Amino acid sequence: MHPTHHVHPMHRTRPFRIPAAVIAVTGLLLSACSGGTGHQAAASVSAPSSVPAATAAPAPSDTAASPTTTATLAPLPAAIPADLEPYYKQKLSWRSCGVPDFECASMKVPLDYAHPVARDDLKLAVARKKASGPGKRLGSLLVNPGGPGGSAIDYLQYAATGYPAAVTARYDMAAVDPRGVARSEPVKCLSDKQMDAYTAVDSTPDTTAETEKLAAADRTFADGCKKMSAALIGHVSTVDSARDMDVLRQLLGDPKLNYVGKSYGTFLGATYAGLFPQRVGRLVLDGAMDPSVNALESSRVQAGGFEVAFDAFARDCVKRSDCPLGRTSAADAGTRLDALFAGLDKHPLPTGTDRPLTEALGTTGVIAAMYDQEAWPALRGALISANKGDGAPLLQLSDSYYERDEAGKYSNLMYANAAVNCLDLPPAFRSPADVKKAVASFRAASPHFGTALAWSSLICGYWTLPATGHPERIQAKGAAPILVVGTTRDPATPYTWARSLAAQLSSGHLLTYDGDGHTAYARGSTCIDTAVNAYLLSGTVPPPHKKCT
């Protein structure tokens, strides 16, 4: 659920639009677990195979603590508290979104569920596309692409037209931008120019001065979030967003929640199931996170996931005549990638702009392409250009990951990512000294990305508020069957997490995709789509040990 450091993975109005790169949102899990490689964590946002994908993971308060927990998320009382009834009884006023067949509305939720006060209410953006038919309507199907920080409404525009027709014919496809994200009271932290500087900071510091600069950048980021979003950042946890989804479920007229969550969206969906097991309808958790693992272990395991993905890319690359990493072996390709990063560390490449390609930005560009094998040709081309002294294509990949547009404007993806991650789990590291102790273990998990991803996990150590959450197993006793989907070579949410989550859930069922890329449903596998469709349309779960290739 948390992206890479500078790879971490608004109250600005965002137009309703068809997203150019839904993928980048799908993979941002790491800000709590890690940040982008520039200075962020990998997030988890999911997207179709033809769309660019993104990254994610959490953090522990004690680096020596056990990586997993035996604590279990307790459900909330089934009855709706009297002081929350006004939220559950409000009426949605639907209007055109400006895109054919899509409707938009807004809903009010309390800033603080423990102490709801009307003057502090938040306004969340909601959108839907009604079932197209034919067939009997099955209710609403909420979707969330992950992040945290990814816009569910942007993703809805893909899901409502790109999910299998058998599903969109019978469900009203719906989404809410989570609190703090995109159109829903967006968290703000830095100006665009400050974000440019932040993403370029050296994430593999070799000297005391470089270490101090990286730590100062993290402090500036955290202080900026407090300064610009003080009232909000203490109330953007995943538990808060899961409770918001239950309000929306009621407003849409659904007795139970039907949901497809990708990447971090699986943590959001699993949290919902743990809090409201009796209201679980059909939940698909694709690209699963393990809620029982602390931030340090999550970051380290995710680093290993990116290594597995790079190895798959390298093995494919060396078979091709245009491979920019040589044609000898995957190991040799990795050596050449390391040499490229080392060169960028000493001599950033020109890009034709005032932003040279630093090591941090170059690493983020490579990581961005690990989310989807459909991005591998673009990465090969970018590496060919880098070998010729042109850093522009790799910078474009990095910018797509950070959701920076051609005008230099950033979405609030990375700000929301850090805010959610740093509330959900205690930090992986509290000081640069903690990171230095852990670098060797990160490098063991990921020789090519481990150092950068370790340093990317420091951001929450400087957060201005203590975490309100902690690692917990989620059992959701009494819930209807829940389908967990895991991809064997998923870079952002390793397959081991899917197995763990399916085992924790009292009604969990695991569906395996033996393949590459981040998440599996509606991304090209007929086998996966058939199994998930059967579950969404009739409640039929796949047989035990079902594997698709």
TrEMBL record:
Keywords assigned by UniProt, alphabetized: Hydrolase, Signal
GO molecular function: hydrolase activity
Similarity comment: Belongs to the peptidase S33 family.
InterPro entries cross-referenced by the UniProt entry: AB_hydrolase_fold (IPR029058), Pept_S33_TAP-like_C (IPR013595), Serine_prot/Carboxylest_S33 (IPR051601)
Domain Peptidase S33 tripeptidyl aminopeptidase-like C-terminal: 447-548
Pfam families hit by this protein: Abhydrolase_4
Origin species: Actinacidiphila bryophytorum
Record protein name field: Tripeptidyl-peptidase B. Serine peptidase. MEROPS family S33
Transmembrane stretches, start-end: none
Keyword Heme: no
